[in-house]
């Protein structure tokens, strides 16, 4: 029996301050609290609250036959806990239905796997602890930032105790095989679930596109596409940003009406069910290998993710922020350490991609990739200066303590 799996990504970074070159060396507050709260409130009121209410309604109406999964960043958990506990309570109620699974991920929505195995492991373990503390559930399936993936990552995630993980379905790696089946990494290290990027993007990107031949996309039409899949289909994994509902696609587009009607139309065919990722993996074990020897991501079908080395600006800033790891760990200063982790969020590097300015993005505060780059460069320049000053202060304190110890 084939399954449909909805996986919703929920994340928001801290908004960066408008930080000029004249601020370097003088101003050390890199985040705009008011802008962060304003964006969170908008996301909560226009997306999270109405979408969560709708999911709770769908679970009840379909008597537990509608299921979904969430990948919620540690940054978003922190923001909700501080500023919007009402939304956090909703997520708790969703988990308590038994119909919602929470995935593991790097806590700070970072590309740390590409730059620091130690930092990546710390973030994954921190995120797991946050989910266990707040939602009383242990993540068993993993999703990496931007679905960055390779064989080495699969083996590493297996070593951390996860029972499965998501990655992008890339045509060149599938070799004419279906993206709607479960796979395993080389050596049977860990089971893999592949995102159906075409059907996911039909909702996330093409739903309100006036030039798309399939518009309007109705729930009945989308369900018919699901039902048209061959009998040997195991799972269709629809992974998209939760902000698709209410932010990227406003209520006026009909996106909430689409989501409300879709489960009923899919379940009209008794051969199809909704399932959480863990249920899919438990039901469909696979020995067919999905070999990813070179890093892939979800930005394009096999292309580089906009969260990493797409252009010189991104490449330079990613290498710079992760090059500071030793200095951060050496000074052992909690506030600096937290700032360093927050500055790793992939959003800041995504803003440095010119491709992201071809269509309006309501969550992007910049007018150009160059503006995003310069603002981040100014911040990191000052942050590095603060690390150097803290390192010198720590060194003087250490030398002074050594001096006193010789005297006494």
Shape assignment:
globular
- Low-confidence runs: 302-307
CATH architecture of the largest domain: Alpha-Beta Barrel
Main CATH class of the largest domain? Alpha Beta
Report the mean per-residue pLDDT as an integer: 93
CATH topology grouping of the largest domain: 7-stranded beta/alpha barrel
Helix content: 40-55%
Query: What structural class do the secondary elements suggest?
Result: alpha/beta
Topology, number of strands = 9
Task: Compute the CA-based radius of gyration.
Answer: 22 Å
Estimate what percentage of residues fall within beta strands.
5-15%
How would you characterize the largest beta sheet? 5 strands, parallel
Number of domains: 2
The helix count comes to 15
Describe this structure in words.
It is a single chain. Strands 1, 2, 3, 8 and 9 form a five-stranded parallel beta sheet that branches. This protein has a four-stranded mixed beta sheet with strand order 4-5-7-6, sandwiched between helices. The longest helix is centred in the last third of the chain and has 39 residues, at 369-407. It contains 15 helices and nine strands. It has helices at residues 33-61, 74-83, 85-96, 117-135, 151-159, 171-174, 197-204, 219-227, 255-267, 277-283, 312-323, 325-331, 334-342, 346-350, 369-407, and strands at 3-10, 68-72, 100-102, 141-142, 164-168, 182-184, 191-195, 235-241, 273-274. It folds into two domains: 3-283, 7-stranded beta/alpha barrel (Alpha-Beta Barrel); 312-407, no CATH class. Helix 1 runs parallel beside helix 3 (85-96), helix 2 (74-83) crosses helix 3 (85-96) and helix 12 (325-331) runs parallel beside helix 15.
């Amino acid at each position: 029996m084939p399954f449909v799996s909805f996986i919703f990504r929920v994340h928001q970074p801290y908004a960066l301050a408008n930080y000029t070159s004249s601020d370097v060396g003088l101003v050390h507050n890199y985040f705009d609290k008011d802008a962060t709260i304003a964006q969170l409130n908008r996301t909560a009121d226009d997306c999270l609250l109405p979408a969560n209410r709708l999911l709770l309604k769908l679970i009840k109406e379909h008597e537990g036959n509608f299921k979904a999964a969430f990948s919620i960043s540690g940054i978003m958990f922190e923001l909700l806990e501080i500023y919007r506990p009402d939304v956090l309570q909703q997520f708790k109620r969703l988990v308590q239905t038994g119909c919602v699974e929470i995935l593991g991920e790097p806590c700070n929505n970072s590309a740390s796997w590409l730059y620091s195995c130690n930092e990546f492991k710390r973030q994954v373990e921190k995120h797991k602890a946050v989910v266990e503390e707040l939602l009383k559930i242990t993540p068993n399936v993993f999703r990496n930032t931007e679905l960055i993936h390779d064989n080495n990552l699969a083996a590493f995630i297996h070593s951390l105790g996860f029972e499965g993980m998501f990655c992008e379905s890339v045509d060149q790696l599938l070799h004419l095989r279906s993206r709607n089946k479960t796979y395993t990494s080389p050596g049977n290290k860990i089971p893999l679930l592949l995102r159906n990027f075409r059907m996911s993007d039909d909702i996330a990107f093409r739903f309100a596109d006036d030039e798309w031949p399939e518009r309007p996309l109705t729930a009945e039409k989308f369900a018919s596409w699901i039902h048209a899949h061959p009998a040997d289909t195991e799972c269709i994994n629809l992974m998209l940003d939760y902000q698709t509902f209410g932010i990227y696609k406003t209520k006026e587009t009909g996106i909430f009406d689409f989501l409300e009607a879709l489960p009923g139309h899919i379940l009209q065919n008794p051969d199809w069910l909704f399932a959480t990722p863990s249920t899919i993996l438990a039901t469909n074990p696979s020995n067919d290998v999905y070999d990813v020897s070179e890093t892939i991501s979800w930005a394009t079908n096999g292309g580089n993710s906009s969260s990493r080395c797409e252009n010189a600006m991104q490449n330079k800033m990613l290498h710079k922020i992760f090059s500071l790891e030793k200095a951060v760990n050496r000074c052992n200063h909690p506030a600096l350490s937290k700032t360093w982790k927050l500055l790793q969020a992939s959003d800041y590097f995504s803003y440095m991609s010119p491709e992201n300015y071809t269509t309006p993005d309501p969550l992007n505060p910049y007018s150009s990739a160059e503006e995003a780059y310069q603002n981040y460069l100014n911040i990191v320049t000052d942050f590095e200066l603060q690390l150097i000053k803290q390192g010198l202060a720590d060194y003087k304190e250490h030398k002074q303590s050594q001096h006193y110890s010789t005297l006494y």
